[in-house]
Amino acid sequence: MEKNITCPLTEEKVKSLKVGDSVLISGTIYTARDAAHKRLIKLIEEGKELPIDIKDSIIYYAGPTPEKPGNIIGSVGPTTSYRMDSFTPMLLDKGLRGMIGKGLRSKEVIESIKKNRGIYFAAIGGAAAIIAKCVKKVEVVAYEDLDSEAIRKLEVKDFPVIVVIDSEGNNLYEIGKKNYLNFNSSEI
Fold first, then answer.
1. What rounded mean pLDDT belongs to the chain?
2. Any idea where the Fe-S hydro-lyase tartrate dehydratase beta-type catalytic domain is (predicted)?
């Protein structure tokens, strides 16, 4: 089922999304990868304010390529999410509501998603140039020295994702594997 949501990503919106849903996201999301996550966690541990408001926000694990002339952003495909797993529970505890990436998440992240009523979306790897067309505005908001890994504020319209882990911990990767292993081609 395809659903449209607009950020901020409130708890009520998250509850309405179920594993396997196709979602089109509009509004503000942030890009951040592991180097930026490490800095965010250091600020939290030091009791300092974060450079972005993560409450009810979505972080997209991406590092855009340089934009071509006439474009506002280059290709912006998802990064493998497990690289952020050691940082994610603390960010979810601080109010982060959603994440976009690709690949499996750790048991600790899944438990934190459930505890904090968060959600994990997958973006389609290999579709980075198409995804870039959903970005309407981009601004570097923190850690410019990290170049492509700087935190960017993206204004997006109809950014396509799939719910991979919903707020109840249902995991599309596990469900898909189970369905595949239980598939009986003789029933076709």
1. 93
2. 8-174
